[in-house]
Amino acid sequence: MNRPSIPFISISAASLLLASPAHAALDDMLVAGGLGLSAGIGMAGFATGLWALLLLRKARREQRRLMEMVERTLAAQTRSANRAEPAEGRLDPPMPANITAAVPAQNPDGGTVGDGASEGAQRAAAADEPAANVIRLSEEAARAARPEREERTSRRAGKAEKARVEALCEGRFDLALEPMISISGSRAVGFNVHATVGPGNDFMSRMASEPRAGARQAFEAALVRKAAEVASRHLGADGANLPLHVPVSASLLQNPEALGGVATLYKGDDALARSLILSLPVHLMTGANRKHAAALDTLRDSGAQFAAEGWLGGADALKILTGYGVRCVKLTANRLLEREKLRPRDLDAESIIAACTREGVTVSAIDVTTDEEAVSLIDLGVDVMSGSRFNGPRRLKPDLPAGKGILAAT
Questions:
Q1: Is residue 390 a contact partner of residue 408, using CB atoms and an 8 Å limit?
Q2: CATH number of this structure's domain 171-409, picked from the four choices 3.40.1390.10, 3.40.50.620, 3.30.70.270, 3.20.20.450
Q3: What are the DSSP calls for 306-340, one per residue?
Q4: Contacts of 351 (CB under 8 A, 6+ apart)
Q5: How confident is the model at residue 146 (pLDDT cuts 50, 70, 90)?
Q6: Going by C-beta distance under 8 Å and a sequence separation of 6 or more, which residues neighbour residue 179?
Q7: What contacts 213, CB < 8 A, 6 or more positions away?
Q8: Which of 346, 380, 338, 343 is nearest to 363 (CA)?
Q9: Residue ranges of the alpha helices (H) in 171-214?
């Protein structure tokens, strides 16, 4: 070993010997610090748990206080109801069961025993009393009043409905006309007749449900009579070009008196026969049982003309319709645009249009609502349309002088 390296080795050894106590001291400090940190975390956890326990107890106290408040409020409402409705023959209202009337005992000092408790009871009773400006209705009174209000509302609605039905059956309504528009001619070629119901713009062409026996046929007979008056008063020579289409149903055909009244309107009046067309559901003419054939023959022999609503059957159905003199077949836009499910023997829209065109029968689309529907119907070859896409029903002017024309009356 070289001599100069001996001091270096000696110094290094001395340094290691001196560093050992320092490392030991440092380890002791770390252990102490770790213990202190653990103790601090434990104390913090204990404090947090204690704080959570205090909050839980406070919440439970608040909950009990809330329940007591609710119970006091319910008790106060019960006492108020008892005071508001005293028993028959009793002059004073009954004393609440939870208040005991007793004279406080005197203590030797001249005061009363339990003054603090008495004052607390008085404060509690005052707190239980409802505010002077608050009116509370007991549950019994509310339940009793509710059916009475509903019954009054129901009675008023029933009276209004009864008056409306009587007006419809007796013909006390105004007519409204819905134009049937020719797309190629840009003009009206007829009108669908509606009844105006009520002061607003509510219209009815058919009575969907019968509110009482005979209401539907009475309404339809009144609708035909009023339409005949309008046709005679305003159409004149335009009757054949602007006929009124009045909807009727089996109810009118099955009533001999109503049927006879309608037939009488047509007898001897060729102008009315051309200007007033009865619009019938197609099954009344092409149905399998044909139970309305006699009534239809009666109307046809008197001069009435028919329009058919809908389509039932194959190509032979058109022969039956033309046999009754039908010159117009009305189909909904949904039926013509193949949106309705067809039975196997029913013709599709294109076949119906082609067959009617060959026989000179007009196909009229009803319930047309959009431009897209109108364009699609034009592509199919349909020219006459009506519905909300065009002018809807318009109330007739009842005070218009005669001879002004039907267009001026709408």
A1: no
A2: 3.20.20.450
A3: EEEES--SSTHHHHHHHHTT--EEEEEHHHHTT-S
A4: 315
A5: low
A6: 188, 190, 191, 386, 390, 391, 410
A7: none
A8: 380
A9: none
Report d(CA 65, CA 205) in Å as an integer.
Answer: 66
Cα–Cα dist 112/106, whole Å: 5
| 115-128 vs 5-84: helix crossing angle, rounded to 10 | 80
Q: Are 360 and 141 in contact (CB under 8 A)?
A: no
Answer yes or no: are the C-beta atoms of 194 and 176 closer than 8 Å.
Answer: yes
Distance from C-alpha of 69 to C-alpha of 73, rounded to nearest angstrom: 6
Structure-block tokens of residue 103? 């004279």
- Residue 64 CB neighbour total at 10 angstroms: 10
pLDDT in tens, 170-229: 888 899 999 999 999 999 999 999 998 876 678 998 988 887 888 999 999 999 999 999
Torsion angles phi and psi, residue 300, rounded to 5: -65, -40
Cα separation, 153 vs 399, whole angstroms? 36
Predicted pLDDT at 145: 62
* 3-state percent breakdown (helix, strand, coil) of the chain, nearest 5: 55, 15, 30
Task: Supply the pTM of this predicted model.
Answer: 0.61
Decide if 242 contacts 235 (C-beta within 8 A): yes
- Mean predicted lDDT score pLDDT of the chain: 79
Q: Which residues pair with 331 in a beta bridge?
A: 365
pLDDT at 129 over 60: no
Q: What percent of the chain has pLDDT over 70?
A: 68
pLDDT digits (tens, 9 = 90+) for 83-116: 655 444 444 444 444 434 444 444 444 444 445 5
- Where do the H-state alpha helices sit in 85-138? 115-128
Q: Give the orientation angle of helix 256-266 with respect to helix 215-230, to 10 degrees.
A: 10
Contact 402, 233 (CB under 8 A): yes
Closest CA to 69 of 128, 123, 126: 128
Q: Which one is predicted more confidently, 398 or 297?
A: 297
d(C-alpha 331, C-alpha 235), whole Å: 26
Closest-CA residue to 385 (of 240, 176, 178, 231): 178
d(C-alpha 186, C-alpha 199), whole Å: 31
Whether residue 320 contacts residue 312, with contact meaning beta carbons closer than 8 Å, is answered with no
